[in-house]
C-alpha cells in the first residue's frame, strides 16, 4: 500500500460493516507500514510485523516477526489485518497448508473474542488498479466468535 487514503478507506469500510470502533490492531506483513502509521494517526493503537526490516516512519509500533509465531499475548487485538500479505507469502515463499494454518491459529489467538480478521487479497488490488468498481466486496471480514 502506497497511499494513506486507502488505509483510511479500509478502516471506514470495516467500521461501517462491523459497527465496531477498534482500539487496537495488528497488521501482518506490514512492509513499509503505511497502514500502521495511518491507523495510529487515527488513534487506533496499531502494531505492524514483518520478516523484513523495510518499515518507514515512527518505528515504535514495528516488530520484526514471523506471522507464523506472533510475539503478542492472547486476545490483545480488536483487528488483525492481512493487507495483501498472505497472498504474497503463498506466491513468493510458497507457503503451503501447514504455514497457512499456523498464521490462522496465531491470528485467532491474538484476536479478542468478537474481534475481526480483515483480509485484502491480491485480487482487491489487481481489480482496483485495472479500474473496476465495487472491489471492496473482495475485502474479507471475519469475526472471532469463540476462544
Ligand atoms: C506485498 S507485501 C505487503 C506489504 C504491506 N502490507 C503493504 O500493503 O504495503 C507482503 C509483506 O509480507 C512480508 N512477509 C512475508 N512473509 C512473512 C512472514 N512469514 N511473516 C511476516 N511478514 C512476512 C514480506 O516481507 C512483505 O513485506
Which features does this protein show?
147 residues, alpha/beta, six-stranded mixed sheet, binds S-adenosylmethionine
Give average pLDDT, whole number.
95
**Order of neighbouring strands in the sheet with most strands:** 3-2-1-4-5-6
Beta-strand content bin = 15-25%
What is the name of the CATH architecture? 3-Layer(aba) Sandwich
**What small molecules are bound in this structure?**
S-adenosylmethionine
Written overview of the protein:
Helices cover 37% and strands 24% of the residues. By secondary structure, it is an alpha/beta fold. The chain has a single domain, classed as 3-Layer(aba) Sandwich (Rossmann fold), CATH 3.40.50.150. A six-stranded mixed β-sheet has the order 3-2-1-4-5-6. α1 (4-18) packs across α2. The protein is globular, with a radius of gyration of 14 Å. The mean pLDDT is 95. S-adenosylmethionine binds next to β2 and α3. Residues 1, 29-32, 34, 49-52, 66-68, 83-85, 88-89, 93 line the site of S-adenosylmethionine.
What is this structure, in a nutshell?
With 147 residues, this protein is an alpha/beta fold. Helices cover 37% and strands 24% of the residues. The protein has one domain: 3-Layer(aba) Sandwich (Rossmann fold), CATH 3.40.50.150.
Write the layout of secondary structure elements.
Layout: H1 4-18, E1 24-28, H2 34-41, E2 45-50, E3 62-64, E4 77-83, H3 86-93, H4 97-110, E5 111-120, H5 122-130, E6 140-143
Parallel strand pairs: 1-2, 1-4, 2-3, 4-5
Antiparallel strand pairs: 5-6
This protein binds S-adenosylmethionine.
The site of S-adenosylmethionine has 19 residues, from strand 2 and helix 3.
Amino acid at each position: 500500500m502506497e497511499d494513506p487514503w486507502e488505509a483510511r478507506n479500509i478502516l471506514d469500510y470495516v467500521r461501517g460493516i462491523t459497527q465496531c470502533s477498534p482500539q487496537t490492531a495488528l497488521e501482518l506483513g506490514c512492509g513499509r507500514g503505511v497502514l500502521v502509521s495511518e491507523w495510529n494517526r487515527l488513534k487506533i493503537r496499531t502494531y505492524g510485523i514483518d520478516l523484513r526490516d523495510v518499515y518507514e516512519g515512527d518505528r515504535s509500533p514495528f516488530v520484526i516477526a514471523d506471522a507464523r509465531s506472533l510475539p503478542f499475548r492472547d486476545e490483545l487485538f480488536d483487528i488483525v489485518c492481512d493487507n495483501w500479505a498472505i497472498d504474497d507469502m503463498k506466491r513468493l515463499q510458497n507457503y503451503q497448508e501447514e504455514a497457512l494454518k499456523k498464521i490462522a491459529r496465531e491470528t485467532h489467538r491474538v484476536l479478542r473474542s468478537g474481534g475481526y480478521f480483515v483480509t485484502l487479497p491480491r485480487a482487491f488490488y489487481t481489480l482496483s488498479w485495472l479500474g473496476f468498481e465495487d472491489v471492496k466486496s473482495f475485502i474479507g471480514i471475519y469475526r472471532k466468535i469463540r476462544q
